[in-house]
Amino acid sequence: MRLQHDMLPLVVSHVSYRVDGKAIIEEVSFAINDPGLTVLLGPNGAGKSSLLKLCHGLLPPSSGSIRWGDADARTARQKQAMVFQRPVLLRRSAAENIDHALKLRGASAAERAGVIEESLAWAGLGDVANMPARKLSGGEQQSLTIARAWALNPEVLLLDEPTANLDPSATRRVENLIRSFAATGRKIIMATHNIAQARRLADEVLFMNHGRLLEHAPAERFMGGPSNPLAARFIAGELVE
Amino acid sequence: MDEFSNASRTALHLLAEMHPDLIEIVLLSLRVSLSAVVLAALLALPLGAFVALKPFPGRRGIVILMNALMSLPPVVVGLVIYLLLSRTGPFGVTGLLFTPAAMIIAQCVLVFPIIAALTRQTVFDLHEEYDEYLRSLGAGTWQKITTLLWDGRARLLTGILAGFGRAIAEVGAVIIVGGNIVHSTRVMTTTIALETSKGDLGMALGLGIILVLIAVVVNTAVVTIGGSASRRTL
Q1: 3-state DSSP call for residue A11?
Q2: Chain-centre distance for alpha carbon A174
């Protein structure tokens, strides 16, 4: 069953974000209308993570506006979940990590028990439910953060370089979870600097560099030949700064 | 050397027969110090966490003060509480001076900064790590505090036990506000001081042995709890 979205379109209008006068994001505007997987692509320091955090409300824009459908900022945040590059896991068991997130979102004890079991099974973590989360392997830890996000049943999932620190096998595992998540019709926005990963997963691409959005295109068209020269060099494997 | 062996023999004899005076003193010491530590922890844990999480004007000064108060001289604490509780002091009407309650207050004042400063640092460090996750889930201040205190429990328990170590070994403040009254406010440390000055070294050494044993038990607990928590959660 596919979700009925009331969080789309995401409209980002003339958003800038500055820290101590330095522009991290510069006059970025775009709209995302469709579900599926949008990839924020660009080299390190392009501003991908900052843009994700701005969209999630973790950073306040210095100027401009961000709107998720008709939702106010608080409602929008409650309908989203975010997974960070370095898995943020509490010093508790895998199951308790999911339980904690559900509690914060106001789920009752009865609701939580079923959802925890279901989400761990979904992520293939059923047999490590009672293991300390921080003792799991890197791939399992990131899978757990995605399972925790899944348990929250968000309309939008934001992923910040979720496989940046993982080996190929763990990356495959996490990408499979992301595909499974996307198959439910939820909106996914993922930051990555990995062109191959973007090729494997993206439905559309936003290419960024130095805090600016340089191209926004369907993935197929972008990968076939981006119109922006810098993006073309980037996907050709050149070292773009 | 003879004096030491005689004192050791008497001490072991007192310990072996569980002398009622000795037991009374040990139990009162434990009651006073445990009460002080529990009270201090109840106040210091939320306050330390609040200072770690909430920016407010003068927070830096409060942090410096909390750290400085960890080395508060016990006799000064004893003196100040004595002045506050003495008949002519602002809290004289409570009649608490020279009671175990006054000793609990004094030890609480000494232990509070240790637990508060350690809590602040523990919560601050964890918050650096958890901040975005907690904000992403829309956690309120109280939810953040409970999450961070629970996840910092191994370090916090170590701090609380260190506080207990300071309380149980403290003599300067409790002798001033307790008065070292027999069967009323006489605890291990004050008895050791008194019996040593009287030349009754057997009793003093017996209590000294118990104090050292308590220190060993507390330190074993710190190492065990810290190690076990690390294995289970880190």
Answers
A1: strand
A2: 12
pLDDT tens per residue across span B161-211: 989 999 999 999 999 999 999 999 999 999 999 999 998 888 888 888 888
d(C-alpha A18, C-alpha A25), whole Å: 7
Alpha carbons A235 and A6: distance in angstroms, whole number: 33
Residue A144 forms contact with B (CB below 8 Å): no
User: What are the backbone angles phi and psi of residue A208, rounded to the nearest 5°?
Assistant: -125, 150
Please state the pTM of the whole predicted model. 0.86
Q: Where are the alpha helices (DSSP H) in B137-186?
A: 141-151, 153-168, 172-178
Q: How far apart are the first and last CA of chain B?
A: 50
Nearest to A88 among B129, B139, B233 (CB): B129
Residue with tokens 């330190």: B219
Assign a CATH topology to domain B22-190.
MetI-like fold (1.10.3720)
Q: Which residue ranges make up each domain of chain A?
A: 1-79+157-163+189-241
Q: How far apart are CA A113 and CA A103, in angstroms?
A: 11
User: What ipTM does this complex have?
Assistant: 0.91
Specify whether the CB–CB gap between A89 and A149 falls below 8 A. no
* CATH number corresponding to A1-79+157-163+189-241: 3.40.50.300
A59 touches chain B (CB under 8 A): no
Backbone phi, psi, residue A174, to 5°: -70, -40
Note the helical H segments in chain A: 48-56, 73-78, 94-104, 109-122, 138-151, 168-183, 195-201, 219-224, 229-235
